[in-house]
TrEMBL record:
<dbReference type="InterPro" id="IPR017452">
    <property type="entry name" value="GPCR_Rhodpsn_7TM"/>
</dbReference>
<feature type="domain" description="G-protein coupled receptors family 1 profile">
    <location>
        <begin position="57"/>
        <end position="86"/>
    </location>
</feature>
<keyword id="KW-0472">Membrane</keyword>
<keyword id="KW-0812">Transmembrane</keyword>
<protein>
    <recommendedName>
        <fullName>G-protein coupled receptors family 1 profile domain-containing protein</fullName>
    </recommendedName>
</protein>
<keyword id="KW-1133">Transmembrane helix</keyword>
<dbReference type="InterPro" id="IPR000276">
    <property type="entry name" value="GPCR_Rhodpsn"/>
</dbReference>
<feature type="transmembrane region" description="Helical">
    <location>
        <begin position="44"/>
        <end position="67"/>
    </location>
</feature>
Amino acid sequence: MLTVKVKHELLRNAKQLYYHQHPICVKGETIAFQSAISYQEEQVTFLVFLLIAIIVGNLIVLVAVVISHRKTRMTFFILHLAIAVI
């Protein structure tokens, strides 16, 4: 049978799991908790990397279109598409 202390710990566990926290170990009737690792830093790092890759890729397209001497509707369209994305 669960004691009141364990019931409160289980309720706290459920609340912390809801708020992205997880238990790390169970010792007897008490449960130790650790805050969940925040993925915000990793997400920002990935988005910055993605932004840099997009800008570099579109700059390469701009340089390639400007260097090429073909002036067609398609190169004009690609040029403006690359400019719009940047």
